[in-house]
Amino acid sequence: MRNTEIIRSEQTDDSCLYCKHPSGLDIYIKEMEGFNSAFALFATKYGSINTRFRLRGEADYAEVPEGIAHFLEHKLFENEDCDAFEQYARTGANANAFTSFDQTAYLFGCSEHFNDSLRILLNTVQNPYFTQETVDKEQGIIAQEIRMNDDNPGWRVFFGMLRAMFHNHPVRIDIAGTVESIREIDADLLYRCYNTFYNLHNMTLCIAGNVRAEEALAVCDELLRPCEDQGLEQLYAEEPEDIVTAFTEEHMPVGTPLFNFGFKLRPREGREAVRTALVSSMLLETLLGASSPFYNDALHEGLLNSEFDVDAPFYGDGYFVVSCGGETAQPELVRDRILQVLETAKREGFDRETFERLKKVRYGDLIRSSNNVEASANGMMRSWMRGIGIFDDAQLLASVTYEDAMQLLREELDPQRAVLSVIR
Amino acid sequence: MNYTTTSLGDGISLISVQEPKFKTNTLAVQLLVPIVPEKNAAYSLAFAMLSASCRRYPDNIAMTVCLDDLYGGTLGTSTGANGTVMTLMMYGSVIADRFALQGEPLLDGMTDLLLECLFEPNAENGAFNASEFAIQKKELLDTIQAEINNKRGYAMTRAAQTIFEAEPDAYPSYGVREDAEALTPENVFAAYQELLRISTIRIYFVGPEPVPALEPRLREAFSVLTDRAPLPLVFKSASRIKPETARITEPMDVVQSKLVMAFKYEEQDSYAVRMFNVMFGAAPYSMLFMNVREKQSLCYYCVSRARSLRNTVIVDSGVELANAERTHAAVLEQLEAFRRGEFPDELLENAKRSMADALHGIGDSPFSCIMEAYERFYSGDDREPEERIRRFMEVTREDVIAVAQALREDTVYLMQQEEGTEHEEH
Question: How far is it, in rounded angstroms, from Cα B127 to Cα B188?
Fold first, then answer.
């Protein structure tokens, strides 16, 4: 028996169906009236940081090479008969996949034959097929993907910051691993990781757009293979509160130097993490964002340009980072000014009106994303990943206060835990 | 998707789309002029000035506060090219009024703001405000200087200089350094006045319900343009085919080389060209993806795109230097296979399904609605999506072979990684 319920959001005039499928999978389906296309994501809580793990009953933790989650994503596009892209070609769907620090997602978008494409998605992800030959072949392709990222200054400056912040946590390692680490990957290791993380209890299916929930669920009933919860446990290396170094720099051909400047915060989980992310991003937006004196003075002086941005907080198991970044000829001066702005705000407070206005902006963002097929499916997956209700964002937003922001500012935006990363 | 077109004056039209599913209202004003390369920088900077500030909101702070009060309304400009026509667009978007928590009239607010940006810019005595101008000029110069940051994009930009040598689109639509450096608050303001006179103006509105007051409001606002003389636009213009393939190699301090190949052709059926492009290298089941990437493991990406207004197909890939020649040969080999008709029927059928799926999905975002209306305008092909799907379905194997046979290799550009940055193959 499937258990289903309808979840509603009055704020965004939205609803979606939730089903705890007997197979163990969490399924979310948002039917969107009037839309032509549909979008589906089949995702697992498995990304580049999940390198040490064991299952119930196993004595020791396994440790696997860096970049293996991403490698597995590439390989799951092949099964014994043919490539998944070739199968999707027969339905006309547009398919893809991505791996982040803590998740891997397989997805497709289409405007016709949704159920046929859903079958391909569920079959592909549930039927791995690797041989040493196909693994070897993939190494050349992924090596080129890694090299491409090595030439991307935006990517390099961000990882420079993470490496300067984290001593041991695997978030400091490139998602795709290194050309060296992926050489250690073989078919057996891939199967081991697959069998550990691609358990339906560790996964979700999120669908939005021009779909009929009942039909999609019927496909799920047919194809999802029930799983036992295996009692997955993960281990992360002990991570001190302090940073590795306050400054890091690399050189490569760039027009204007690039920088990321960020703070290492205390890690958090669930609703607290999502709420802190809201508080911290609104706080930094108020102090450093488009309407702040800091940003506008820097614009007029030519110190910054519109590439400057307050980044979305970056957080997950064992890490929480708030940062900003952009282009400047004088990154050290920008850092010093930011630290000054924060110190002044700690003593004197900051513009409450701007902070409240940003709530309106965030609310507008929620309405916009609820009006887009792809953003809706992605939003459901993100909420599931974070362990909050699918439409809890609006409530959390309403609960954020100026006092929360002051507390975070005073307690955690500590200059001793700030890192400046520069590419010039 | 149903849209209505209304004339608001000489070369000025309003294109309205009503889609009850949308929770936002979007307004966009598009100015179209023939590309004159030395004017690119002035035109694009003029448009950047317009959305950065206006008389009522004279700096970034005032403008940001206004947009925040519109619940994070977006206001922006973009510059681009279609064939040899320059497109300048200013767009504004707000959530629908029914979502405003205090009943604020958000669409009215955005309409006022957009029109004020266009007709009451931050300027006096024939010049844009000097300090705001300095910021936007630096932005433009920084954009030009930062081209090198994105190596794939930079390789394409450099290759385009040879592919479209001595043609209007050889250089980016936002201009080049020398032209940007010569800009002043006066000459950019003059360029804007010129744009208002010589451009074809298309205004797009996409929202959940009709707004009867909008048309008269826009008609009145645009009636101030009294000396209109829109220049004729020629979207379709074949790029000149070089008698011999041009080969350019540019060394750079990178760890991956970039290969760009351009092919040109004499006039072909545009549906067959687009179909060929999908089959050749634009889809993840295409010949380039399946052979150059998947079978030969030469690269992470090897993609083709068709610039059908310019009768040009461009392929680009990121490769090890040691494999650059092999990759070049592999792309030519796939093209030869096409010319000989050595591709499975299924590939053609798959490409048709992709096209049908993409066309059925049109109109799911306000931007998609605007692009659909614009594409019908510039392509001169006003067929409904269903009719276009039917045209794609009629493309035959022979049509695709004819396109492949018509392609001539025009340019090969290589951004070459410096020695010592290559890594061992395995």
Answer: 8
